Structures are given as C-alpha cells and as structure tokens.
Amino acid sequence: MGEKWAGLAARRETAADVLLAVAVLAFGLPAVLFGRSFPDLPFLAVPGWAQIAAVCAAAASMLVRRSAAWPMIAATVACGLLSGQTMPLMLAAYSMTSQNTVRRWPWVAVVLAGVYALADWASPYTDRLPVAVVVRAITLVLLPALVGTWVWRYRSMIRELRAGVRAREERAAAQERRRIAGELHDTVTHAVTVMVLNAGLIQDADELDEIRKLARNIEDKGVRALTELRELLTALRRRDLPPSAESVEGIPRLVEESRATGLRVALHYDVPEETLSRQAGHACYRVVQEGLNNVRKHAPGADVQVVCEAHGGVLNVSVVNSGKSRAVPVRVPADAGGGYGLPGLRERVAQLGGRLTYGPTAEGGFALTATVPFHPPDQCEA
User: Fold this and answer.
1) pLDDT band at 318 (very low <50, low <70, confident <90, very high)
2) Strands 355-360, 366-373: pairing kind
3) pTM
4) 221 located within any domain
5) 231 with 290, same domain?
C-alpha cells in the first residue's frame, strides 16, 4: 500500500510540473509571437527566435524544478530579460523555497525581484511608476518565495509526523510481539513441563493406580493448556486477561503440582485476595510459575522456598532454591521456553509499576523475587 501511494504521489508531481511548463508556454509564446514583448527598446532588442528559445527554456526548466534550482533560475532570468515575460520568475521564486533547493534563497529572491522590476519597467505596456514597479516586484516575487518557505516547513512537519507515527507503530508492534511471546511462554511452558515430568515418572512407575493418576494429570494439564490458549487468542486483541487467568489463589495449587513431580517445596502464603487487582494477582502467579519451572529445569533436587505475602500495599513474591540438587528420575529439556520467561516477567511486572529481580544467592542457589503494587497504574488496566 505504501508503494502504491508513493507511485501516485510521484505521478501527481510529474503532472503538476508538466502543467506548469504548459502554462509558461501558454503565457509566453503568444506574447512573443504577437509582439507583446519589448523588442522596440534598443538595449533589450533581441531576435524573435531568441525570445521564443528563452520562453521554451523557462518552460523546460519547470520539469526539473524539484531536483535542481539553478537551471530554472537561470532560464527564468533569461526569459525575463530577453522576452519580458515575468510569470516564470514568480514560479521560480516559489519553487526554489518550496523544494528547499537554494540555501540562501533571500538573496536569490532579491535578484529575481530585480529582474522582474527591470522587465516591468522596460515593458511598454505598464505604467512605469517606480513605486508601482517596486510593489509589484515585492508582491509577485518575494511573496511567493515566502509562501514557498511555509509550504516547505509544512511538508517537513508532515513528514516528521508520519515518521513518528511509523516509529510508534513499529514500537507498539514489537511490544505486542513480546507480550504475545510472553503470554504463550507462560501458558504453554508450565503445562508442557509438568506433562514431561509426569511422563518421565510413568516410565518408572510399577503400580497401575499410580500410572493412571499420572496419566490423568497429563490429560488435565493438556486440556487446561488448550483452554488457556483458546482464551488467550481471544483476549489478546483486547489486551484483557482471559477468564481462565490464574491469580494468587492458584499459587498453592502450583506448589502441590510441583511436590507431586518430586520437588521439595515449602510455601509461606499470606495475601488478602479480595483487595488485589486481577493484573497484579496474575503477575504474581506467573512469577511463581516461572520460578518453579526454572527449578525443575536447572535444580530439580533442590529445596525450594516460595513466599507470597502482602505488606503496605505491595505484594512480595519470591521463589528461592537452595542449589543443592539431588538425583531425580526425570528429564526436562534445558532449553524449554527459549529464554522468554524472565525477560517477559520483568516487562510484565514493570508495566504494573513493580520490580523483578533474579540472580544467584550466597548459598549457591538462585532467587527470583518480585514486588507488585496492589493496584497497578491506570494505563496498565487498559
């Protein structure tokens, strides 16, 4: 679409230049051919063919006025001096400033106004009043040049606005792609990780009841992941949370699922859920979910401490593992998630006015902590 409009604009500009060239010919040639120039003046008398050539050169210069100003200026000056035709001077004064092709345009405009005044004074068809000649030169040459500067500034402003709009659109698109990637990561990775762990446990299970329980867990996680994906795709356009989005009340369930897959997790939970916004609660849920997933991938045998408590209008969430791993009979792909989890979480928490930090602990473990306000800024509720 952009290329189409650019092509239309180029053709429109070419058509305008051709029409200006035709206008110069239409105004200049009849005056020369029917003797309305000033060949009777001794110091300006020139052959008719030279006058016609000057008018044609001025007309041809209109075709290149957007890219080169000096051929147009020279041709219109010659046309004014040789044939007495002043209309090309006005077009040259406007074109050089509207296209910003002359750096010191005021001096050039003064020269064009001087040529206009000379041609006007020498013409036998004018009043030859000095004041009137000066007023006409200023009005019909300097004023078009000044209008051209306004036109150039207006076009420059439009270009800057369009460039700014494109840049904002690109930033918004990039932010939306990151948000979608983060939502998909948070929705899919946890379910797939639990399913993989349960599948690994099935391989080592001997009792039929235990196998059936693990298989039901796999089925439940798969069905829930599909449900969340469908709701996510529906809600992404509105930037709303899907109906199935978990809040802090889902954190104890996450801990129980982790314990069922072999992790040793301790939970300290103290949150007044009724005063917590959906966005803040969902962000805290995602923090715990990502922290437990990372423990499964990188320290599956470590002791884990999950804390979720509220103090002074701020919700503090942390997932800390001891780093002392023990052997476990499960396999989780080390590259699961593709590195979207922690950067996506940091952006999610920052949009809510909170702060996310993560890094190794002094004991050799790893800590993931977040502070989230109870009520995020209004722009995050949209």
Assistant:
1) very high
2) antiparallel
3) 0.49
4) yes
5) yes
